[in-house]
Structures are given as C-alpha cells and as structure tokens.
Amino acid sequence: MVSLIALAVLLASFGSGYSISSFLYMNIHNSGFHREIHYTLKFAGTSKMSCDLLLLQQFPASMYVDTDQLTTMKKFKKINSYVPLYVDVEKPESKSSPFVVYLFESLRKEVNITLPIHFRYHEPSEKKFERIQIESPTLHIQCRNGNGKSTLKGLPTQRLPCPSSAMIYDYDKLGDASFCDWQELEFNNVPTVISVLIPVGNSASYKFVLPATILVSWIGSMYLIYIIFRSGKRINKKLL
Fold first, then answer.
1. Cα separation, 46 vs 187, whole angstroms
2. Residue 225: how many CA atoms within 13 Å on its side-chain side?
3. How confident is the model at residue 45 (pLDDT cuts 50, 70, 90)?
4. What CA–CA distance (Å, rounded) separates 68 from 173?
5. Radius of gyration (Cα) for the chain, nearest Å?
6. What is the dihedral of CA 147, 149, 152, 155, to 10 degrees?
C-alpha cells in the first residue's frame, strides 16, 4: 500500500513538470542623467532544463535608451536586447512616450545584465527635482525538453519577440521581428522599485535667465566680430 502511494506521488511530480524558483535584484549605478541598471537574477531548479529567459522592462517617457549604443554593445556581445522602435534621444520628456525594452539571456543559476539608461530633460517648473520611478521588469521563460516542448505546467503563455530579435540591427526592419510563446514566471521575492531624483529647471528664473542669455550672446558676438575685423586689417597690412 505504501509503495503504491509513493508511486502515485512520483507520477504526479513528473506530470506537473519541473518548477523554477526565481529571484530578482535591481540596482542603479552612476549619477546624473546617464546611468546603468544592473539586474541580477538567481534561479533554483534549472539543472535539468534548457531554457531562454526574457526580461520585459517598461520605461516611462522621462527616460530613454540609446539604440545606437545598444547596437554597439550587441556587436561586442555585451547585451542581447530588442527595442521595437528607434528612440529619438533629443526629444524632451513632454514630447516623448513610454516604451519597452526586451532583454534576452540563457537560463542558468545566476544571470547578470547591465542596461545603460538616460533621463530626458523636463519642462521648467517650481520644483527643483523630479522623482522618477522604475518598476521591476516581468520575467518570461521558454523551456525545452527532449521533444522540443515546454516542460513547465500551469504558467500563463504570451506571444512575445523571439531571442532572434536581438540580432536585428537595421532600424527599418524592427517590425519584422518574429514572435514566440513565452511563459511568465513570478519572482519569489518582491523586487525593489527604483526611485531617482532628476534636476529640473526653475521656471521662476525665466525672467532673469532669458535677458541674461541674450545679453551674453550679443556681447560674445560683438567681441568675435571685433577680433575678426582686427585680425583682417593686420593680415591686409602684411600682404601690402
């Protein structure tokens, strides 16, 4: 009787598939408008599985990633990323929109990813700083067994870009990315939401800054004209 119960439990465990425990730790490095997000992912229960992972990171309009910078990093094997649009790095926050970045890696016990991020300029206001929050990403995995099928049971499936999307370098072909079935995996810990303070121009200084800027620009221009005119007369004398 005991042996039958043990056999039933063993069969049930095989039928339910493997289970993976996942933990995410996020940190932001550097200061100012140009920083880096460091993702550290730790997994348990992956020894018998072959999987790809996908981090889906949502960013607010107040931030951007430099797609040219990411393309260079991909060529040097420093990151596997896909951004479904070309990001205009010159736009201010008021004219920008939220966007998403897809980060791909192979599943192993510990995965480390470094993503360079940048903050956009905000409209002047009465506040000295603007607080920007970066939410934690969602984790998606794509696993295979000997038959090439997923070995995880009970996880929701979603169609998202395949790992091959990271190999698209031509901005005109970003829309040609292929999509695969991914299973969303919850983190066992509660990742910390990153909060960053970015300096903002003081709108109360507008009445002083604008005239001062025009005056300084005018004085500088007149000085350059004077130097050019004086140098020209000296050169003419030498030629004569």
1. 15
2. 6
3. confident
4. 15
5. 27
6. -170
- Kindly indicate the confidence band of residue 54, based on its pLDDT and cuts at 50, 70 and 90: very high
Sign, Cα dihedral of 162, 138, 55, 107 = negative
Residues 102-114 as b or e (16 or more Cβ within 10 Å = b): bbbbebeeebebe
- What amino acid occupies position 10? L
Handedness of CA 106, 111, 114, 117 (dihedral sign): positive
Task: Return d(Cα 113, Cα 43) in angstroms, integer.
Answer: 14
Q: Which residues pair with 136 in a beta bridge?
A: none
Burial 58-69 (b: 16+ CB within 10 A, else e): ebbbbbbbbbee
Q: Which residues contact 116 (CB under 8 A, 6 or more apart)?
A: 34, 35, 36, 65, 66, 69, 70, 73
CA distance 120 to 94: 9
Tens of pLDDT, residues 156-177: 899 999 999 999 999 899 989 9
Q: Which H helix or E strand runs over 5?
A: helix 2-15
The residue to which tokens 């303070």 are assigned: 197
DSSP sequence for 167-226: G---GGGGGG--EEEEEEE--SS-PPPEEEEEE--BGGGHHHHHHHHHHHHHHHHHHHHH
**pLDDT tens digit string along 99-133?**
999 999 999 999 999 999 999 998 888 888 899 99
